[in-house]
Each structure stands twice: as structure tokens, then as C-alpha cells.
Amino acid sequence: MKGSHSLLCLFSVACALNWMLTAGNKIFHFGPCRVTMSLTEIRSGFTAIKANVQARDPVRTLSILSHPHSLHKVKSSDRCCITHHLFDFYVDKVFKHCKTEDSYVNRKISSIANSFLSVKRKLEQCHEQNKCICGQESKEKFEQILLNYEALNVTSAAIKSLGELDILLDWVEKSQ
């Protein structure tokens, strides 16, 4: 009898620990691909540095992600592809060039980058399994984002893209 109480207690602790570790995680569907991530954690990290990052943006006349039709009306079948490209873009182009003299901001950027890297890897698995088909529309939308990015110097483009992260996060949430 005493052993069953210990077993029950141990099981309860394991369940509580598992719940705490996965709290905030949500499954997102990008076409046929399912990805678990904590958008709340990413958004919280971004919110903490948003004003600081946007104050560093010297170009107010151009948007990387808000160009008409960049993320609007993406077909369900293209969501996996464009999301894969966007997370790849942020990991490979944006976060690498967003260094500041503020260690707090740099730590938050690093935390967001790690979350993006995790999602990017999951999306790559879908892509490798041919679940993530890229249609012409998703290619054109992503090419427009790259053109907007490449219209600026690398540092300015990276800061602007980071400052627009809420646009991407809103799109991810709304695309569910």
C-alpha cells in the first residue's frame, strides 16, 4: 500500500513537471506540417526589446514584411513553404546581424533566435519529407521579402526585419 502511494506521488510529480516544461507550447499547422512552439515565449522576448530595436531602425519608409501581398492571403498549401523560408531567413540573415551594445537586448535576441532555430529544424524535416511543397505564389512572396531586405545595407535590413517580428508572429497566429 505504501509503495502505491509513492508511485502515485512520483507519477504526479512527473506529470506536473511535464506540464510545466510544455506550458505555452502550441501546435501550429502549416499546410500538412505540424510544428510545436511557444509563440507566447517568442512574443514575450520580442516585446521586451521591441522599442529598443525599432528606435535603432533608421529607415521608416520601407517595410520588409508589410509590402502589399507579402504575407497576405497565402494559400494553405503554401503556408509550410513560406513559413520554412521565413524562419530560415530570420535564422540565417536577420539574427546573425542584430548585435547591439546592450547585453540584455542581445540575450533576448539570442533567445528568440534559438526558438526560431528549433522551429526551422522542424520545418526542414517536413521539407525533406516532401510535405512542404513550394508553389509559385509562395516563391514570389518570399522573393519580394528578399528584395525588400536587400534594398538596405545588411545591418539596417536586419534591424528592420527584427523590428517587424510582430508582423510575422501575428501572421503565424492568424494563419491557424
Report mean pLDDT, rounded to a whole number. Answer: 84
> Strands of the biggest beta sheet: in what spatial order?
1-2
Count, helices: 7
User: Biggest sheet: strands, sense, closure?
Assistant: 2 strands, antiparallel
Rg, rounded, reads 19 Å
Strand content: 5-15%
Structural class designation: mainly alpha
Low-confidence stretches: 7-23
Distance between the termini: 48 Å
Task: Give the topology string: H per helix, E per strand.
Answer: HEEHHHHHH
Globally, the shape reads globular
Percent of residues in helices: 55-70%
Per DSSP E runs of 2 or more residues, the count of β-strands stands at 2
How would you sum up this structure, described in words?
The protein is mainly α. The protein is 67% helix and 6% strand. The protein has a two-stranded antiparallel sheet. Helix 2 (39-55) packs across helix 6 (154-163). Residues 7-23 have low confidence and may be disordered.
